[in-house]
Design a protein that fits this description.
Eight copies of one chain form a homooctamer.
Chain A lengths: L1 H13 L4 H10 L3 E2 L4 E2 L3 H5 L3 E4 L5 H13 L5 E4 L3 H8 L5 E3 L4 E4 L10 E6 L5 H13 L3 E5 L7 H5 L2 H6 L2 E6 L5 H8 L4 E5 L11 H8 L6 E3 L5 H12 L2
Parallel strand pairs in A: 3-4, 7-8, 7-9, 9-10, 10-11
Antiparallel strand pairs in A: 1-2, 4-6, 5-6
Helix pairs in contact in A: 4-5, 6-11
Amino acid sequence: MKEDVTRLLEGVRDGSVSVEDALHQLKTKPFHDLGYAKIDTHRALRQGVGEVIYGAGKSAEQITGIMSAMLSEGQTRILITRIPLEKAQEIQKLHEITYYPEARMGILGGMPEVSGKGTIVVATGGTSDVPVAEEAALTAQFLGNDVKRLYDVGVAGLHRTLAHLDDIVDANVIIAIAGMEGALASVLGGLAECPVIAVPTSVGYGASFGGISALLSMLNSCASGISVVNIDNGFGAAYQASLINHR
Amino acid sequence: MKEDVTRLLEGVRDGSVSVEDALHQLKTKPFHDLGYAKIDTHRALRQGVGEVIYGAGKSAEQITGIMSAMLSEGQTRILITRIPLEKAQEIQKLHEITYYPEARMGILGGMPEVSGKGTIVVATGGTSDVPVAEEAALTAQFLGNDVKRLYDVGVAGLHRTLAHLDDIVDANVIIAIAGMEGALASVLGGLAECPVIAVPTSVGYGASFGGISALLSMLNSCASGISVVNIDNGFGAAYQASLINHR
Amino acid sequence: MKEDVTRLLEGVRDGSVSVEDALHQLKTKPFHDLGYAKIDTHRALRQGVGEVIYGAGKSAEQITGIMSAMLSEGQTRILITRIPLEKAQEIQKLHEITYYPEARMGILGGMPEVSGKGTIVVATGGTSDVPVAEEAALTAQFLGNDVKRLYDVGVAGLHRTLAHLDDIVDANVIIAIAGMEGALASVLGGLAECPVIAVPTSVGYGASFGGISALLSMLNSCASGISVVNIDNGFGAAYQASLINHR
Amino acid sequence: MKEDVTRLLEGVRDGSVSVEDALHQLKTKPFHDLGYAKIDTHRALRQGVGEVIYGAGKSAEQITGIMSAMLSEGQTRILITRIPLEKAQEIQKLHEITYYPEARMGILGGMPEVSGKGTIVVATGGTSDVPVAEEAALTAQFLGNDVKRLYDVGVAGLHRTLAHLDDIVDANVIIAIAGMEGALASVLGGLAECPVIAVPTSVGYGASFGGISALLSMLNSCASGISVVNIDNGFGAAYQASLINHR
Amino acid sequence: MKEDVTRLLEGVRDGSVSVEDALHQLKTKPFHDLGYAKIDTHRALRQGVGEVIYGAGKSAEQITGIMSAMLSEGQTRILITRIPLEKAQEIQKLHEITYYPEARMGILGGMPEVSGKGTIVVATGGTSDVPVAEEAALTAQFLGNDVKRLYDVGVAGLHRTLAHLDDIVDANVIIAIAGMEGALASVLGGLAECPVIAVPTSVGYGASFGGISALLSMLNSCASGISVVNIDNGFGAAYQASLINHR
Amino acid sequence: MKEDVTRLLEGVRDGSVSVEDALHQLKTKPFHDLGYAKIDTHRALRQGVGEVIYGAGKSAEQITGIMSAMLSEGQTRILITRIPLEKAQEIQKLHEITYYPEARMGILGGMPEVSGKGTIVVATGGTSDVPVAEEAALTAQFLGNDVKRLYDVGVAGLHRTLAHLDDIVDANVIIAIAGMEGALASVLGGLAECPVIAVPTSVGYGASFGGISALLSMLNSCASGISVVNIDNGFGAAYQASLINHR
Amino acid sequence: MKEDVTRLLEGVRDGSVSVEDALHQLKTKPFHDLGYAKIDTHRALRQGVGEVIYGAGKSAEQITGIMSAMLSEGQTRILITRIPLEKAQEIQKLHEITYYPEARMGILGGMPEVSGKGTIVVATGGTSDVPVAEEAALTAQFLGNDVKRLYDVGVAGLHRTLAHLDDIVDANVIIAIAGMEGALASVLGGLAECPVIAVPTSVGYGASFGGISALLSMLNSCASGISVVNIDNGFGAAYQASLINHR
Amino acid sequence: MKEDVTRLLEGVRDGSVSVEDALHQLKTKPFHDLGYAKIDTHRALRQGVGEVIYGAGKSAEQITGIMSAMLSEGQTRILITRIPLEKAQEIQKLHEITYYPEARMGILGGMPEVSGKGTIVVATGGTSDVPVAEEAALTAQFLGNDVKRLYDVGVAGLHRTLAHLDDIVDANVIIAIAGMEGALASVLGGLAECPVIAVPTSVGYGASFGGISALLSMLNSCASGISVVNIDNGFGAAYQASLINHR
């Protein structure tokens, strides 16, 4: 954005851009306005990644509209998160997407080459955490990362965790996904030498309070090198993990 | 209590107890009334343990009054919990108690013989949890148990935990004390084969919310065989552990 | 687990186990990996109990897969918790389980001989708490305990509670199950001389907040010898009660 | 208030009161304006009770100013709640009040004759609840009621509660005061045949959360005939109990 | 209950009751045990009111079973709360009850004569609070009280409240029912000279948090003479109001 | 209302109104009583706006009844909020209303002339906030205001926000609508020179807690000139914005 | 800010400003950087008001440093909020400020002429709310508004509220300040015809939870035209009220 | 840790290590046991960083004891967090540490060479957030990173934020520190192309609830690439930022 402003100012000085035009460009250029959504058409270039549509709270019509606008701007790979099967089927009538039911994601244009430096380990405490883990794993792959899945390695059966010590120590980033007491993040944080991004899940009942228990547990981890994202936010964890893996 | 009623009824049938007296006894017998407190003078016999005074919210005068009443009823060992040094010093003017500053407890009459079957392990996640742990350990000893202290064995340094695998596996009951994320209970619960009583502590800051984080974490533990007591309630954990250890 | 490590090390010294193999065994041996789940195939032997599958959040396919793996490892009795009727019927197509609709549990291989020392009393405050109570009672039976059910003995009708004074005093462990104000645990804790495990239930409305009211009430009980498990966690209470009853 | 409006309207019709005056009276008559407080000088007559000053958040100057205004309007008995000793001593320089340190209340003009129909029982779960109980008991006496104090009758020692069955059954209103798990209200509510007003107290630690635990417990009581006032609100409970006792 | 014990003891003394029988009677007499429920068959006599069945969480079978037991004990009027239409229709196959859909209550045996001293006013803040108000009003009538309904008199339109000043001032007890900000209780409490029982309702959205907002507002009322029951607990408010109205 | 009282009092003085009639008028005049609702028939005149019916929690019958009463009093424009399509269709059988599905509102009598001074900007953080925004925008138009919609201008894409700097600076009132982190209000509050009314929305998942996150964020805004309404309360924001725009 | 950008761009086009300079100005001009604070030196001109320093969390040194920078930029009137007496006295050693102890504010340069259109009414429910009210009233005066104070007009004594009907109806904006149940805002919102800004206060105890009760009550008000600011935020309410009063 | 096990096993195979010794080493080697603390003496080597002591909840004696043990193991640089001035002065009697009062940290052995790849930007919303920011900045420097401080760049004055666009875009990691509404993280997350670690602070009052408001806001950020640490946890943010900056 900074460069855009510089270039615009240079144009004004050269006389190649009028003041009115410059003001107008500042206001209208960087996105495509659909009324219900402003599409950031420069972001893919600027940030070097495919574009993502957060599907929750958007109708199939709105999503396909946004996709069409993106495609018309030259975007070739699109990730759509948090869409149920029915909505995906609606979208598939217009655009060719692969739908991943467990992760509730759709992908247009397939997975890219691996561009990240190391491996992103995606670990879960239990079987019920797998949907969130798949959202994270597929997002990380979509963003060009090598991914290693370690599912059901919760600390109540510590030998299951320790059996994967190799993968844990070799990881470049770890995404630790757990509901209930969320202790997985602390144990992995103590064993690993890389950043750990913790994802609390809404799995559980009673005093798990829809993920609050795991969230608080992870925020209070005694292990260093852990940060936390929103409950069930597999996408967000993978996005940051990818940024780290591309440093 | 049941036996008391039976005996009373037999007295009434025999004519040795009048109906009025029986009613009167039911109402006045089982405790000593000091106005501000009713002292349960039969409980020591009935439950086979020394008597305990919960010191918080009671003045030194009230505590010494209760102690005097207990002593006059034949009690020989008394435990007083949650009293600061100054209150203990006030009490020491009248009654000979040993004061434990870290646990903030006073004990009259010393520790009894060990009567419990096995060892009660008292483990903490960190150094800051030690005051609660000492409250638990001393209470357990006061109630006739062999106690093994394992302090600062939190799971963020897993090798510290695993180094005590012997003690953990050999325990008859474990008291797992931790603040912050409270993951110690889950890991011990997964390793041990005995009941684990978890004590969340108010140690921590920010999103530990005075122990809520650890409390929720422990209530949601994926490991089986864990139950939980109130935040910082070392006494309560030790009391139940002793009951279990005397089964 | 400790013994396994010792034995493995001895094998390495003897030359009967190579270093590579030892490392490999440490990582792969103790469980059966189904991808979505790691099955702890040694636990039944190690802990002397039948195996349990936590059914919530697992599909019928995943559950039957886990059961098959367990059976192939020699397991003969399996308990599956928190499965609705439909899922149970799916499972019954492959495995012969008895389904208990009120407790929402399935059991393969029937109940074992009683091996516990005394009686586990399962008491509820009201009629609406019975499903959680049945989860507890059946689990306790599955784990080899003699169980006595006392339902609808809430303290708002104190004579109903007191009428069972015999059972309360004779119990080796009590599981006190109540929603709303959860006062049952305190009253039983005051009357009994054995450990009481309290289970808050999500029964109630308004300010019961899905069991929070009962949970807090039980954590704050003035009676000694009480610990608490998660809301509606009849299984967890019974598991710990059984550990205590087998001391 | 209704009567005042009627009388004013009649005066307007009679011509004895001008419209302007009527409007003026409606606005200025019913209280005495001190700038920082409006004193309701007719309330004592209208509601037949002495006047009360809520002392918290008011300076000694403000309190004595309000008292002077009340006395000048003919008030003879005044109750001041929630004032620490120092503030009471400041007030005593100007007005002759008796100070009750445990209840932190001051009373000018002494206690009235008993005018209520029956006895108000003030019961507490423990010794630490006594300050709130004294606020309730003294308020009830100030409002003309016969009061019976039953302190430290908590349900964890049920025989202490049952020993006072006479007083409980004979009460016209019961004020049940308890912190921690607040179970006293439910047990008394089940035994008594009169209205029970429950007062949660902030006594306790950890998961008592400053009285929230007791508050929720009391709001969820399974016993009928119970209502609840704010945490530590001994005054409010006594005020309503007095209204009931004067029906 | 006290009298029962006295009488029993007298029987023991006379020899007309053996000790074993006395113990047995203490344990089995006062209720009818259906396994899933203990029915208090003496309560109607003891407390002078018809019997109530809390319908939530009970099946139609359980309810009809309880009703049959009550009828066989001589009960003639029964109130069943919180049953949806379908459950009521199931019950109507066996027992003749009148169903009130708005209040979701069923009544067997009709309304009794008015036995209460004065009028119970049932007031609501809005139209959406009417279902809770009807639960209260019908319960009060079932317990023998004269009831006056004042619906939609919320304080945001103060003239609607003031228009009923007569009814408010003449009431013997007021039940103030409101959701959202719950200010109705404070305003009525300031105008009335009788006890006000406040019922928060779960009506509202957003920051009303299912009635918490109204509950807190009512607990914190500045007006004296107000106590509060659980969210949506029209029954409980009416039960206590009836006790007060029968003093 | 003040004027009404003055006029009534003058009538009483003149003898043109009897005291009884005056009292009667005070009580019965200002609204139309339907039993379940009191309709304020003078408010439109008094406050100069069309009348509004809060549709949630009211049946179609109740709504049409209220509408009929309003129409019979001369009301010509009516707004009904929070009604689903089905309820709107029921109402349309009796009254001619235009239904706005996204906003879930119905309007009878169409939009009025613009009477407000400036423009009310309605801005949203994302696409999912649009339903609340439409409730606000349509309400503002119904109350006579010029409205400018700026949707999907959230601060995570700051250039989208800044592109509308003109509209933001020129606004007379801004309604800032956002879920999740609610940062839009702070950024607009920092840029604008007019009052900003913030509306948190329940959009989001996990730790958004149904809008609590956005609500707290907006209440804590560091920018001056911001106030907040209830979660999802587009109507309330627009109502106040219109009051401000008509100053 | 928009104008600055336009002017800057025009300068670039004219050649009177180089591109480098323009970028530099965009980055460095609009504030004065003290390291620990960036002072917005153009804001007074831009927004036409005196400058405000939020004093909480700033040392006396930091505050005087900021004041000196402001004075050197030509600012003549400065308001400092939330400073205790001691900090004010420190500041007074360097700068001549008037300190208002109840409001805990300091003002340099005195109050300006009244520039607002109408009157801002500042009303409180009780005497304890006065400090917050004074913060609001003095801020409003500092921003050029005519202020009318109505203190202790809470709705539990409704005649006190109604006595000021004139002031309420004549106000151009009302700031309604109340703790505890916060009902004042709803009643004023129902009576007034102007915008009401509600300020919950942390006054109260127990279930007032430091102002949460009043905050929720105000957010849920049934009266239209009300918005809410943070707990105890008298300044924020007055700032917005002034913006409205200067429309 | 993995390597240690491998090496140990090889020793056992070679006969150079006995099985008993191997077991013993596994248990006792990796830390130094002080009773109240287990010091991880291999960690500095293993993880390549200086050692950190979390000072809160530890006495000066405990801290100096731990430091002595570390120094005896060859550690040369030690960071001690969260110690007040007095405790630092106690420590300085034994060990030569530099104390940073704003950050409340002590450092022994000085800062290391910069070893991280890029710049870590530490940004705060306001002046009051500086103490947490200094904890983060000094920690990052202690761990070998180049740090750029941007203080008081909160989004309510957006030009202050934008003026540092250069630093924001050039950062390798950003630590965004803010209390109150926490919007800084979202805005920086939208502008930056690197990972953003958000630190909520407990700065604020009222509905900021000790940092909960900022915490929730940051967890719900719409910007991608953001993760969050505990309230006021400047250390934890810097630790993870350093891990990322050393990838």
